[in-house]
Structure formats: C-alpha cells, structure tokens
Amino acid sequence: MQLEEFLTAAEAIVGANNVSRDPTTGAPEGLDGSRSYGDPFPLSRPHKPGPAIRPETVDQVRDLVHCANKLKVPMWTVSRGKNLGYGGSAPVLDDSIILDLHRMNKIIEINEEYAYAIVEPGVTFIDLYEEIKRRKLNLWLSVPAIGWGSVVGNTLERGIGYTPEAAHYKYQCGMEVVLPDGDLLRTGMGVVEDSKVWPLYSGGFGPGLDGIFFQSNYGIVTKIGIHMSPAPEAYTRIIVEVPEEPDFAPLVGAMTDLMRRRIVANPPQLFDRMTLIIGAARMDPEVAKALGEYAWRAGFALYGPPEAQAGLLNTVKRRFEQVKGAKLTSETFNAAPGEYLRSENITPDFLPQNGVPGIDHALAFSSKEDGLWHNCYSPVLPPSGRELYEWYVRAKKITADHDLNFVADFHVFDRYVISINLIMFHPPAKARLYDVQYALMDDSKKLGYLEYRTHISFMEATAVNQTFNNNAFGRFTTMLKDTIDPNGILSPGKQGIWNSTAKSERLGLGEK
Ligand SMILES: Cc1cc2nc3c(=O)[nH]c(=O)nc-3n(C[C@H](O)[C@H](O)[C@H](O)COP(=O)(O)OP(=O)(O)OC[C@H]3O[C@@H](n4cnc5c(N)ncnc54)[C@H](O)[C@@H]3O)c2cc1C
C-alpha cells in the first residue's frame, strides 16, 4: 500500500514516464544494450532492485525525499548506475526504490583558467570530455578506464583515474547535497550565497562535511566541483617492465619514491602477465605474445613543459637502473610552440593517462549467462612493494585454491597502493566468488588491511572488520544515521551503515 502510494506521488513529481514500475527498463544503456536496473554480474544473493524513479531537478529530489519520509520507503541513490564489479545499480536491501539521477545532466560550469568544473550527477566522463573538446579548452580531465560512468558517482565511491588528479576524491571541491530530511546543504565555501571560491578552496569555516558524503548514505549529492589538469605543453608516457615475479617489489618501491618526490605525478598502474595477456588478446594476439615475455609491466607518464621533460625522464631512468632487470621505454609528445597539447592528439594508451574516456574496456564483459563477469577485491596496502608482494603471493594462492585466476590491477600512489584483484569468471563459477572473497578478507584481516571499496554483497562483511576500540567507527556511523535519517530512507546498508532499528533487514547479509 505504502509503495503504491509512494509511486503515485512520485509520478506526480517526475512524470509517469520517469517512473519504472518494472526495473528492467529505463536505466541508461549498459552492457549488451541492456536498460535494466540491477547488477549485471549478480552473485548468489540477488539484491533485487525495486521500481526506479528518475528526477530531473533538485526540487524534485527534495519532494521525493519528503514523500519517502512520510511513507517510510527506502531509496537507493545512483548517478548513472555503472558501478560494474561493485554491484551496478543494485541496492543492498532488496526492493529498495532506485533513485536514478541520470537525467540531472547539466554541466553547470567549466572554468579553464582555474581548471575546474561543476557538474550534476548525470554528467558522464564522456560528456564532460566532449564538452571540453567542443569548446577547445586547454584542460585534461582524469577519467576511469570506462567513461560511461558519472563524475559524481565515481568520485563519491573514491574512484580512480590516470592523470595527476587520479585520486578523484582528493580533487573534489564543493558539494551540494539533499539531506535525508529534504533540506539542501552546500559544503566548503558554498555556505556563502554566490560564493566565488566554492570550487576553489575545499576547506571552509568550521568542520569539513564533504567527507561524510563519500561512500555513505547520509545524503543525495546533486552537484560537485572537480579539479582538472591544465593541458600540458609536453607529455611523456613511460613503460617499465621487469622479467621475474619478485622483481615487482623494488619496482613498486621505486615508483612510489618517485611519486613522493613529485617527479612522477600520476599514479602508475601495475599489471601482471595474466592481466596484460587478457587485455591485449582482445586487441592483437601478436602483442599479447610479446607482452608475455615480462612478468610485470608498469605504465605512468610525465606532464609538463618540454624543458623539464628531458630532465625528469633522466631522473626516472636513473632510479630504475637500481631495479634488477628493469627495461624502460618512453615516448614524448610536444605541442607546437606557444600551444598546449590536446588529449585527443595523443595516441591511446592501454589506460587513459591522456584523459580520453572510452568504453573499450567494458567490451570484454557481458551480463549474459555465457558472458565474462567480474568482481573486484580491492585492499589498500603500504607503498614499499615489500608488503604488496607478500600479500600478492598469498592472495594469488588463495584465488588459485578456489580455481579462479588472480588478475592484478594495481594502482600505485605515493603512500599507498590500491591492489585490485580483478577476478574474472564465467557465471557457473559464481558460487566460488563468495568463498574466495571471504578467504581473501580473512587473510587481509590477519595482515591488518581493509578494502577501499567493495561489492554490495560484501559491504556488511567488510564493515564488521572496522573493529578498533570496540567498533567505535560503526557505533558513530549508526548514531549519525539515527540522528539525520531516523526513517532510514537513504540507501540502507550502504557500506554496512544502517539505523540501529534495522535488525531483520540485515539478517544474514554478512554471512556466506
Ligand atoms: C573493466 C572495468 C574497468 C573499470 N575501471 C575503473 C577505473 O579505472 N576506475 C574506477 O574508479 N572504477 C572503475 N571501474 C568501476 C566502475 O565502472 C566505475 O567506478 C564507474 O564510474 C562507477 O559507476 P558510476 O560512475 O555510474 O557510479 P554510480 O553507479 O552511479 O554510483 C556508485 C555508487 O555511489 C553512490 N552514489 C552515486 N551517486 C550518488 C549521489 N548522487 N549521491 C549519493 N550517493 C551516490 C551510490 O552508492 C552508488 O551505488 C571499472 C569497471 C570495469 C568493469
């Protein structure tokens, strides 16, 4: 009854065309041309999406929140719902309404001089890149490997790109948020009417609130500011390969050292032979054969004036001479004198270090029963390479013991490594995904590590590992949830955060 009343009210707010009572229609196009809501790679637990609602304005979002409170109907927010490998647009709690913000797709501002943009949730990386290109702006945008996702959703998930602004959450500046009671808040300097520094200074006066809206269910983000790189005059892409498995430990140590010294600005990506072969085999079998001669390959780049490139490159070369067996190759692109490089004039890299978004990396996958599926296991490790190697050997064995392949996709930052085991599998193997994921989580716990992000099926089991001081973090997040969202209407169970009253809803969720 309440659901019916809610859907009728929602139709009055957003129009009947923008309510999908049947969640197999209405989503932005995804794998295999599907327009269905939900997880394209569902594991054993369904996480069934309820009907979907697609508002177009902030006022509509606020009206929907008021209705949801009145009728106590839970809504799961997505911006584009392309969270592949982590649950797509599926909710933790079965039958939650999917609040799909893809129609809120305005690029509010792009500022070339200060290199920032302010966007609504429906704006994809491809949209923003195309607009920059159309206006011939001298800006390079950090984009993830697949560009059809939203700047807002990816940033809120602390997603990763490949230019110097790759840690997207660190380059977010200013948010507008609909709170669980329907109020509208701006963070940072956005607290001032018509602020001129909202997208420039990420601090504010008083506590920083932006952090509580990352990976949370405390609000619906309706705008964010994001920083970009001014287009460089020169760009050098570098590949370093090492011949033997254990060689990757000093390779990682060298890369993170160069990052801490600000010689290398973007996070190197590190792949093992398996990842490279899978990636390259889609393109050219001959390339795959050549790649197979090396155990590990790292890719990164230098961005900056031409005078600096040669010096920086020499420094990088000198550092890698200390790594046994390392082979370095590089390629430099220079703009015409007095001009800046355009992203689109750089021939494509394996990953978009030049900031050009695409969807090629999605093409290997299909949500069909005979397709290739995947699930990410993504702990955060220290940067020396020693700990990463120790964890890798253990995690690879655990993965093989479950008759699955470890597919390394490591994102190397100055003081940490996001170490993604990009497990790819055919659907009949999905039962083993639970076992391997739990085994990997248990092992990481012994080593003192936690994931940076996780699939909806494992949010509960990951959150229970936040045990410091008798689960102080969980006690605080629950208290906050109870205080600002007493009816539990926003994304229940997101990152393991629930109201204290939610007992039956979470029953069995953290179990295999
Ligand atoms: C082959 C492959 C490669 C990939 N490569 C990368 C990569 O390089 N880097 C990377 O980061 N990811 C990568 N991904 C994962 C994923 O595809 C991207 O992160 C994608 O951008 C996420 O989808 P989205 O932006 O549409 O977010 P959404 O699905 O819209 O949002 C993700 C989550 O954020 C929250 N959220 C979204 N919008 C809001 C809002 N407005 N208010 C409050 N909460 C909100 C919700 O909990 C939602 O479930 C890859 C996936 C695959 C399959």
Automatic annotation (TrEMBL):
Residue ranges annotated for the FAD-binding PCMH-type domain, each copy included: 45-231
InterPro entries: Cytok_DH_C_sf, FAD-bd_oxidored_4_C, FAD-bd_PCMH, FAD-bd_PCMH-like_sf, FAD-bd_PCMH_sub1, FAD-bd_PCMH_sub2, FAD-linked_Oxase-like_C, Oxid_FAD_bind_N
Pfam families the UniProt entry points to: FAD-oxidase_C (PF02913), FAD_binding_4 (PF01565)
NAD listed as a keyword: no
Any one of the GO CC terms: mitochondrion
Domain of life: Eukaryota
Region (Disordered): 18-53
Cofactor: FAD
Entry-linked Gene3D superfamilies: 3.30.465.10, FAD-linked oxidases, C-terminal domain, Uridine Diphospho-n-acetylenolpyruvylglucosamine Reductase, domain 2, Vanillyl-alcohol Oxidase, Chain A, domain 4
PANTHER family, per the entry: ARYL-ALCOHOL OXIDASE VANILLYL-ALCOHOL OXIDASE (AFU_ORTHOLOGUE AFUA_3G09500)-RELATED, D-LACTATE DEHYDROGENASE
Coiled-coil ranges from the UniProt annotation: none
Gene Ontology terms describing biological process: lactate catabolic process
Organism expressing this protein natively: Triangularia verruculosa
Protein name: Vanillyl-alcohol oxidase
Keyword Metal-binding in record: no
GO molecular function: D-lactate dehydrogenase (cytochrome) activity; D-lactate dehydrogenase (NAD+) activity; FAD binding
Keywords: FAD, Flavoprotein, Oxidoreductase
